[in-house]
Amino acid sequence: MKKILFLAGSNSSKSINYKLIVFTASQFAEQTVQIIKLTDFDLPMFGEDIEREKGYSVDLKMLYNKIKDAEALVISVNEHNGTVSAYFKNTIDWLSRLDRNFLEDKKVLLMSTSNGKRGAASALEYTKNVLPRFGATVVESFSFPSFSENFSEETQSISNEILLLGFTDVLQNFMHQIEQ
Questions:
Q1: Pairing of β 72-77 and β 3-8
Q2: What CATH code is assigned to 3-179?
Q3: What's the pLDDT at 161?
Q4: pTM, entire model
Q5: What pLDDT does residue 39 have?
Q6: Beta carbons within 8 Å of 3's beta carbon, 6+ residues apart
Q7: Average pLDDT of adjacent 10-residue blocks, the chain of 180 residues
Q8: Angle at 140 between CA 134 and CA 142, to 5 degrees
Q9: Distances (CA, A) of 125 to 77, 79, 158
Q10: Where are the chain's structural domains?
Q11: What range does the record give for the signal peptide (predicted)?
């Protein structure tokens, strides 16, 4: 049984990326699943002066330890103006200052969603290129377009059959990769 950490890169209280993470975690019945909210970890906007004067916060170290404790991660990123949110970027900045290789030996399923037809694809591509710099191996990725049209909150399921097939295939491939 693998220990998988699930998180969304959004700080919105109504985050559809978080909803996607919760749904995805429910598909991993045979694994040890932990879902976290990044908003539970108070990280100020990164700056070298803050780092020098205050060092690394307890919240940052707690988040870092949760990541280190996991064998794999599932991350869903949101998109602001064609890239990841400043909030998620800030989290990555802090973690990488604490330990440049904070994702070393971590296999990652990277997802994104939005209510647009591209499903935050630009943020997904940006993150796919950035996470390996910190040691991650992105083994699968999935962009979920038009979330509100393709996901039923009432039934907590993907309502678009083609998207569901693609999503299921990605999950199966990810599970195969982390079991190796």
A1: parallel
A2: 3.40.50.360
A3: 96
A4: 0.96
A5: 97
A6: 31, 32, 34, 69, 70, 71, 72
A7: 95 97 94 96 97 97 98 97 95 98 98 96 97 98 97 95 97 94
A8: 110
A9: 10, 11, 23
A10: 3-179
A11: none
